[in-house]
Each structure stands twice: as C-alpha cells, then as structure tokens.
Write a structure and sequence with these properties.
Helix content is 38%, strand content 12%. The protein is an alpha+beta fold. A three-stranded mixed beta sheet has the order 1-3-2, with helices on one face. Strand 2 and strand 3 form a beta hairpin. Helix 1 packs across helix 2 and helix 2 packs antiparallel against helix 3. 29% of the residues are buried.
Length: 119
C-alpha cells in the first residue's frame, strides 16, 4: 500500500477526535513531521529531540499493507507521543501506563492489542 505523509496526518487528526486520544493534549498534525519509510525492522516509530520537541511519527510502507493497520500504528505512536509530552515514558518502551492507554484504544476500536504491542 502506498502511503503519504499527508495521509498519515489525516489519520492522526481523525484519531484525535476520538477517546482516548481526545482527552490527550496532543498537538495538531501540522506540528508533527510524518515520514514514510521502507524499514523492514519496524512498522512504525515515534521520536523527538532531547528537549521533547520536534515530534516525528514514521510509518513503514514496506510493513504496512492495509489501511486498518495504518490507523492502528498511528494510534500506537500517538500514545508514545502523549507520554513524551507528559514525560511519563519511563525506561521501558511500553510501560504500564502505555499498556493501559493503548489497551483502552484497542478495546474502543476493536484493534488487536497483541499484534501491536511488544515489551
């Protein structure tokens, strides 16, 4: 599936209107850089600079072949973004808070939690 940064931004802004994302103080899509990659070792990745600014969400079009997967991946990275903003990320990539919030999103949207969570 061919993905563009603009499509990723549109999905992001759409998800911001639904719980649990609606309660988060996430910046609008135009304040985030969306990149499409061809990584084979990951489906998606969130990153920011050392000050917690310059947010980026990267999606690999190589490993993302369905729209439903794209939506879930962006939803997953949005939780990382929220934790970065609130400085609650912790030492593990998917800490207890991350798992709680992402599980709530999975239940709301009927996403497969096990498919999109790693330790």
């Amino acid at each position: 599936m061919h993905i563009t940064p603009d499509q990723c931004a549109a999905v992001y802004d759409c998800l911001r209107t639904f719980p649990p994302y609606k309660k988060m103080r996430l910046p609008p899509a135009d304040e985030i850089e969306f990149k499409v990659t061809r990584h084979r070792d990951r489906q998606a990745h969130y990153t920011c600079d050392v000050r917690g600014n310059d947010h980026e969400i990267l999606i690999s079009e190589f490993t993302c072949g369905h729209f439903a997967t794209l939506v879930t991946l962006i939803g997953h990275e949005m939780v990382h973004l929220d934790q970065s903003i609130r400085k609650t990320a912790g030492k593990t990539q998917h800490n207890v808070e991350f798992r709680r919030v992402f599980r709530a999103a999975c239940e709301r949207f009927r996403w497969d939690y096990a498919q999109f969570i790693t330790t």
